């Protein structure tokens, strides 16, 4: 189910990097929601409303986990800052979930610095100054397939439609 927003995805990828496997390896949409509920608790009312109103899930009920398995149990011996960072990424309520700017200010990144190698900075500046990809503000090359460069959304009618999955 298309429940996870970009920040939830950041949290899931972060957890996978720590754990070495998927955080919630569900066998189906409903199973994945069950595993999420087992770790993070009940879904927020908006998520439940969208689930119930989606015709794809008509007649389906989400099983209630008997026992919670918090992130601390799933990711044993994870440093405190990492766990806090993960919880900020995985908050089910979008209004409480940290945005990228807040995540970058999190204690997890304290003391972290990265400098591009001078050769990379010089190469970037040379490319920018040379006017590569003129007519575009992007430094990325233009793709030759017009379907991929147009501003219209991809055509999912070829059996890959996910219209039944709401964005929540």
Describe this structure as you would to a colleague.
The chain has 168 residues and is mainly α. It is 43% helix and 0% strand. It is built from 8 helices and no strands. The protein has a domain at 6-109: Transferase(Phosphotransferase) domain 1 (Transferase(Phosphotransferase), domain 1, Orthogonal Bundle). Mean pLDDT is 80; it is low at 146-158. The longest helix has 14 residues, at 6-19. Helix 1 (6-19) packs antiparallel against helix 5 (80-90). It starts with 5 loop residues before the first helix and ends in a 19-residue tail after the last helix. It has helices at 6-19, 29-40, 45-53, 71-74, 80-90, 100-104, 118-130, 146-149.
How are the SSEs placed, and which strands pair?
Layout: H1 6-19, H2 29-40, H3 45-53, H4 71-74, H5 80-90, H6 100-104, H7 118-130, H8 146-149
Average pLDDT confidence is 80
Largest sheet: none
Strand content: under 5%
- The amount of helix comes to 40-55%
Please name the CATH topology of the domain at 6-109.
Transferase(Phosphotransferase), domain 1
Question: What's the overall geometry?
Answer: elongated
CATH first level of the domain at 6-109: which class? Answer: Mainly Alpha
- DSSP E strands, number: 0
Work out the radius of gyration. Answer: 21 Å
């Amino acid at each position: 189910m298309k429940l996870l927003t970009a920040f939830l995805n950041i949290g899931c990828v972060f957890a996978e990097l720590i754990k070495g496997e998927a955080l919630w390896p569900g066998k189906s949409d409903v199973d994945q929601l069950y595993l999420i509920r087992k770790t993070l608790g009940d879904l927020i009312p908006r998520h439940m409303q969208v689930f119930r109103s989606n015709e794809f899930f008509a007649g389906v009920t989400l099983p209630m986990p008997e026992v919670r398995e918090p992130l601390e149990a799933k990711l044993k011996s994870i440093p405190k800052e990492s766990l806090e960072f993960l919880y900020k990424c995985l908050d089910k309520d979008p209004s409480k979930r940290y945005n990228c700017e807040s995540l970058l200010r999190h204690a997890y990144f304290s003391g972290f610095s990265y400098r591009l190698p001078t050769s990379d900075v010089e190469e970037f500046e040379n490319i920018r100054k040379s006017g590569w990809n003129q007519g575009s503000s992007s430094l990325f090359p233009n793709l030759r397939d017009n379907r991929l460069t147009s501003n219209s959304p991809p055509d999912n009618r070829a059996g890959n439609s996910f219209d039944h999955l709401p964005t929540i």
